[in-house]
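pasting for ref
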Amino acid sequence: MTLSRKKSRLLFRPDHLWLLSLAVLLVFAGCSSGTGSGSQVRQVNDTTPAARPAAPRPGTTVVDLEFLMAYENERTAFYYPIEGLAGCTFGPEGTLIFCDEKRGKVFGLDPGALVWYEFDMPAAGPYRPLDVVVDGFKVLVLDSGSNKVFRFDLNGAWLDQVLDIRQVDPSHIPQVTAFSLDRDGRMLIADVSQQQVLLLDTFFNLQMRVGAPGTLDDQFIDPSGLTFLPDGGFVVADRGNRRLCHYGRLGFFEGIVGGDFEVDNPFILPQGVTSDKFGNLFVADQGNGRIHVLDRRMRPLTSIGDDFGLRGTPTAPVDVAVGPADVLAVTDRARSAILVYRIIYE
């Protein structure tokens, strides 16, 4: 009996009670303050953005195109006859501009009065305006006849010569097919004589040559369309290889979409390409008469072809341009018409 009582006294000594009391207090304090493991997990799930899937930004995904109008090659039109439709673009106020390469003409549509007018012709000849871009309130025209870039104002008045492409790379005679300009003033020029793209800095000095003849990554066969992306990267429509090639801001190759060995390749002869302010891509496919739309990660969104009846269906689109108020213009060489659509976002 004595031994048993002694063990009992040792197990319940008063000086051990404070340890038990402290443990109980800590447990209750942790539960009430929300620092227990269960509360901590719920807190992360409820408040940490990385733990929730990011919701898509509203109004940035293209879901459809709505046909608005077509400027046909009619005798009553100011620009008649259209014989060799080429590049097109929009001015900051919505001025629609297009090139007739065969006739050596550039025309603009005043968005307010809805009246067409003709641009001046530079003294250089032969004049074959192939592509056009807008730089602020100036219009730059790529002339494949002289391999030069000329500058006009938005009213069509000739100002000066901006660039002689033969001086950029004097080692050969270039054969230009397209050009593009970014917000910083850098310029891209597609040259099929060397199957390359020239990247020029803001002073139009040669910064980098991109591409080479061939079918491998970072090689081209007939590069025919160019566009800068909002992040400073750019995309090349590689017509001969039936694909788009993506490059980063510094000109380094990043990836391709399509190609001869891609089973689900939507492209036949991708030519003109442009992007909107969200980075979505619009591609004029002359080979199958379709307009392809890709998102900013270059994933296919939709493809538009014979969906609009006779007036709105492209036949051989060669270029595309995004304008104000979510408008898309398409120059169709086979139809000798400029088709205008509204871009539907959601």
